[in-house]
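re: ur question from yesterday

yeah so i grabbed the chain u mentioned. its 295 aa long if i counted rite. heres the sequnce exactly as i have it in my notes:
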Amino acid sequence: GYRKSHQAFTTAYAENRVLGEYDFIFGDGNTANEAADVSTQWNHGTSCWSLAGGEYSGQLYGPAYKANFLLCKTEDVRSETHVEEDNWVAALEWADVRGVDVVTSSLGYFDFDLGQNDYTYADMNGATAICTQAASTADGLGIVICNSMGNEGPAAGTLTAPSDAFGIVAVGAVYNTGLIAPFSSRGPTYDLRIKPEVCAMGVNTYAASSTSDATYNGGFSGTSAACPLAAGAACLLVQAHPTWPPSLIRQALMATASKAATPDNNYGWGIVNIEAALAWGINFSADTQSGPAPL
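ran it thru and got these structure tokens back, copy pasting raw so excuse formatting
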């Protein structure tokens, strides 16, 4: 959920760029805190939204600060059950109908309350978890899915669903020096694909805080912080290349990242370089020849 009244979102509302919202926990049109929510329900979402597209002069600009936004509230912090994954899938369907281009999701699923129906590493194969299957479907429908890797590192194979999905952009966290954060979950997937795809700053990031309408937090950390930064970058690529499918947006981010030549299961293809990604493929040309090629 979100503290929608925060000053970081004022311009988005003033310019009518918040196009819709839905609370999949309580089934209503309000993604701010409600009477049945715990007081911290909106903490995480407020910070994540601000990192992707917040805007307040002298304080914060998210990379996609002039984007249109759809707000979805799916994660019920009062418990951990598979219903949250169902909410997540419902949110993807709701957003797809409304024409969403990029999803930023700083959520991960692995362990649940009382250890019931937990996922295992063997399930991190891109085809098992509920949310993973939905993420792959959304990618196939033309939506760029950016998802946090998880904060279970530094051991290998510590990623959480849906970051194991095929075709999405799973995001790891680095310090401002570029060093991988120890907590950032690592690949590979169970079927030995490299993860994450890319990394972004995720340690002591500066983000809006839900404490008040004018509060900021310089210590927001986790792959939850890195993901919306990468998603904001993806929005810029979509704006620059509106005809590109998610696969090309993903490839541009990966091919121009800091470790593109030597990807691994710590950094993936490395730290996002949006300027390089915007220039990637600039010399693509269509084959306009008709008929068979001459002998």
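noticed a couple things. The mean pLDDT is 95. also The helical segments are 10-14, 43-53, 83-97, 130-140, 223-240, 246-255, 274-279.
anyway ttyl
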